[in-house]
Structure prediction request, 416 residues.
Amino acid sequence: MTGTSTEPFDPTADPSHRTRRGGDDPLDLLGVDAGLDETEVLLRDTVRAFVDDRVLPDIATWFEHGTIPDGLGLELGKLGLLGMNLHGYGCAGTSAVAYGLACAELEAGDSGIRSFVSVQGSLSMFPIWMFGSEDQKRQWLPPMAAGEVIGCFGLTEPDSGSDPGSMRTRARRDGDDWIIDGTKMWITNGGIADVAVVWARADAPESSGGRGPIHGFIVPTDTPGFTANPVPPKLSLRASVTSELVLDGVRVPESNRLPGVESMRGPLSCLNEARYGILWGATGAARACYEAARSYAIDRVQFDRPIAGFQLTQRKLVEMAVAVNKSRLVALHIGRRKDAGEATTAQISFGKMDNVRSALAVAREARSVLGANGITLEYPVIRHANNLESVYTYEGTNEVHTLVLGEAITGISAFT
Prediction:
């Protein structure tokens, strides 16, 4: 204990009110929720209730066993959360802010659940919606929005993560078909997917350096030559299916090629959509850790008083509260800009980079408040901390987003 209180400690008082002065909400110090309209609040509360009822009671078991329940996609589809910010074709057509709020609530439950929704909507449905033919949209988007068809996104490879342009997966034309050969790695939903959106470089003459255009293909996972293998045991995102995709002479018709793009603009635009969901999702994980630490500090009594009454613990709680509130403001601001059609790639990188690293710092600080209890699955903190180590890396590493921002503020690319 590093100081004394100006008021006597009252062990019978309601501890939740002892932290409030002037009517401040300890979970929303800056009044961020006041910037939401009634529809957004209703959606947020609906998703929060789903997470409370369906995810939180069992998520520790799912995480421990490395599983995700069958039929969860149908439940999420029934709520309208799959491809929710896309318009038409059975999609809910919500605003970007509404989608972000849903991501925050899902990740407050677990990053793996939010990843499921992000991959389905932003990485699997979005490229079909954005670059697909009308027939492709009508065939695939309605059942994907309903959760009847699960998708995955095949871009990352064993030897090309941050440099997707160096992909080795190749597609060659064979009459009216395409033959695809290659391997994709770290693919969320891969082992449970019914369809994969796979990105491959087309063969090109030697005179052009052998670097043909990048194509996206809709590949049903029961196509001969397509295999999904589980990745080695992982200690992060355990309530999420992660796979290696092997394509060995996979034959698909020309009608399965996305006709609207023939460059890296295709997959990179999908990643930008996913990063937007992540910058919101991270605020949910951070909030869950902060709430757990604050509640624990108020209830945990040492030396005849709650540890929340010690200055060092209050400093930790304040740092967490500031980080959570700042991240929520950043997310809401970028969301409003996205709804106005004004959000830039650099701004989304800003949000993904800073919100995720802030969430990871909050998780670590929360773990220290909980002491030894912080490493158990009885509390959500270590689970979120482990998950956020993956979120820190995927959909663009922290270093990649740093360089995106570096180019934005200097005009000079440092990637090469």
Q: What stands out?
A: The chain has three domains: 32-145, 151-262, 266-410.
